[in-house]
Amino acid sequence: MIKLLHIENIAVIEKADIEFALGLNVLTGETGAGKSIVIDALSAVTGGRTSSEIIRTGADYATVTAVFSYDEGDSWLEDNNIDYDESGDVYITRRITSDGKTVCRINGTPLPVAQLREIGASLLDIHGQNDGRKLLDENAHCAYLDTFGDLGSVLGEYRELYSRLTSTRIEIDRLTMDESERERRIDALKYEVSEIEAAQIRIGEQEELNARRELLINASRLTEAVETAFEALHGGDSTDGAVALISEAQTGLERAAHYSEGLRAICERLSDLRYSAQDISDELRAFRSELDFFPGELEELEARLDLINRIIRKYGSEEDALEQLEQGELELASIEDSSHIVERLSNELDFFIKEALSVSAKLSQTRREVAKLLENQVMDELTQLNMPGVKFVVEFSEVKGEYGINANGQDEVRFLMSANAGETPGRINRIASGGELARIMLALKSVVGSNRDTGTVVFDEIDSGVSGIAAQRVGEKLSKLARLRQVLCVTHLPQIAAMADTHFEILKNTSDGRTYTQVNELDLEGRKNELARLSGGENITETTLSSAAEQLEAAEKYKMGLEKRH
Question: Which overall architecture, per CATH, does domain 2-135+432-565 show?
Answer without folding.
Answer: 3-Layer(aba) Sandwich (3.40)
